[in-house]
Amino acid sequence: MFIFHRAPGRLGLALLFGAALSACSFLTPYRVPVVQGNVVTREQAGALRPGMSRIQVRDILGTPLLASVFHADRWDYVFTLKQQGVEPQARRVTVYFKGDVLERFEADALPSETEFVASLGRQVTPKVPVLEAAQEKLQEFPAPAPAPQAQPLPPLPASYPPLEPTAR
User: Fold this and answer.
1) Is 88 in contact with 72 (CB distance < 8 Å)?
2) CATH class assigned to 34-119
3) Which among 44, 60, 80, 146 is least buried, having the fewest CB atoms inside 10 angstroms?
4) For the chain, what is the mean pLDDT?
């Protein structure tokens, strides 16, 4: 019989907790932007010319994200960016070599440096609800209680006792 008296209380508490969680569903946590890989811009890809050495390509594009032992004449540069409220971005640049000389490269549509920097600052913020009450509603609220008067502090002692006992 003791168990039956507590069960409705627990059930009510669980329902109350569930209702409180569903009321907070409009809040979304902040998610940190995730940048992975090498950013290759239109200006960098425009600087590539057939006949360049591997070192020259690495100086322009950076170290490749993927350099396979099985495909020694191919470097892959992959870039992904995930931001809250913005569609994820993914770009790929593949560089092909013949020996140690650049033969050709293939790339997705690449942004300019200015476009890429501008895309980093683009964040969608959720609408904040307006928290205002009309004048009629303000009249319904009770008037604030007056603040209590501050009491003066007691006077400080003329001298303080020693921190350590005196040696005798």
Assistant:
1) no
2) alpha beta
3) 146
4) 80
Mean pLDDT across 68-89: 84
Measured CA to CA, the distance from residue 40 to residue 62 in angstroms comes to: 9
Give residue 1's pLDDT.
46
State pLDDT tens for residues 24-67.
555 667 777 777 888 888 999 999 999 999 999 999 999 888 77
Q: Mind listing the pLDDT tens digit for each residue in 136-148?
A: 888 888 888 888 8
Neighbours of 120 (CB within 10 A): 13
Gap between the Cα atoms of 40 and 46, Å rounded:
10
DSSP string, the chain: -HHHHHHHHHHHHHHHHHHHHHHTTT-------EEEE----HHHHHT--TT-BHHHHHHHH-S-SEE-STTTTEEEEEEEEEETTEEEEEEEEEEEEETTEEEEEEE-PPPPHHHHHHHHS--PPPPPPP----HHHHHHSPPPPPPPPPPPPPPPPSSPPPSSPPP-
Q: Where are the domains of the chain?
A: 34-119
Counting every residue written for the chain, the total comes to 168
